[in-house]
């Protein structure tokens, strides 16, 4: 309460920009700003609004301090590799369609994508009245509202068309095998 009255005193001094002796004040104006009253939040809401960084840190803290939580997280996030006692991630992100998928339910045709890139479609008249001051068509491929003026280079279908390639999902961060080099063969 004392802080508020101190702020109010400073605000009243600043309103005239001069002190009692007539000299000019050299510090910034202080204003009292009302903050909204705190609202009650549920745990699910707090989880949904927390940053990914904060959620990861919390999950690590919980799994490090609670063996049951560690086992539960492991069973959800990791799956055993057949024939070994090693584990791998249960879900991956596909490098082609960018969707998350279950590594054990990765069937042929689950991934649908275009292997080509966007290219200008000159045949449908979209660009006929385009003003070059807005940029060259090639430079607008990622701008919202210009999809109609582009097509996929792999199949010449419009940008909104379903993918022309069907395959299994491929992990975005594929585990690269290290190649073994025969040092003796390099010195011969």
Walkthrough of the structure:
The protein has a domain at 105-167. Helices cover 27% and strands 13% of the residues. The protein contains 5 helices and 8 strands, in the order ααααββββββββα. Helix 3 (52-65) crosses helix 4 (67-77). The protein starts with a helix and ends with a helix. Mean pLDDT is 77; it is low at 1-16 and 177-188. Residues 122-137 have a biased composition (Basic and acidic residues). Residues 167-179 have a biased composition (Basic residues).
Summarize the structure.
With 188 residues, the protein is of the alpha+beta class.
Number of helices: 5
Radius of gyration: 30 Å
| Major sheet summary line | 2 strands, antiparallel
- Spatial strand order of the main sheet: 1-2
Which structural category do the helix and sheet elements fall into? Answer: alpha+beta
SSE succession:
HHHHEEEEEEEEH
Work out the helicity level.
25-40%
Tell me the fraction of residues in β-strands, as a range. 5-15%
Report low-confidence residues grouped into runs of 5 or more: 1-16, 177-188
Mean pLDDT across the residues is 77
**Oligomeric state of the chains in view:** single chain
Tell me the distance between the termini: 84 Å
Give the CA-based shape: flat
* Number of DSSP E strands: 8
Region (Disordered): 122-151, 167-188
Biased composition (Basic and acidic residues): 122-137
Biased composition (Basic residues): 167-179
């Amino acid at each position: 309460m004392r802080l508020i009255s101190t702020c109010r005193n400073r605000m009243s001094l600043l309103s005239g920009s001069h002190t009692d002796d007539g000299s000019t004040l050299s510090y910034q104006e202080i204003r009292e700003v009302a903050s909204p009253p705190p609202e009650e939040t549920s745990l699910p809401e707090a989880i949904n609004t927390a940053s990914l960084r904060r959620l990861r840190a919390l999950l690590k803290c919980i799994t490090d301090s609670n063996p049951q939580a560690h086992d539960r997280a492991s069973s959800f996030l990791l799956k055993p590799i057949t024939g070994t006692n090693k584990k791998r991630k249960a879900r991956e992100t596909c490098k082609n369609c960018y969707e998350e998928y279950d590594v054990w339910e990765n069937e042929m045709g689950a991934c649908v994508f275009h292997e080509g890139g966007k290219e200008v479609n000159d045949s449908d008249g979209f660009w006929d009245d385009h003003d070059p001051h807005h940029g060259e068509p090639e430079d607008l491929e990622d701008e919202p509202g210009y999809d109609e003026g582009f097509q996929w280079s792999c199949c010449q279908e419009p940008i909104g068309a379903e993918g022309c390639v069907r395959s299994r999902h491929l992990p975005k961060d594929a585990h690269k095998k290290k190649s073994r080099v025969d040092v003796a063969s390099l010195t011969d």
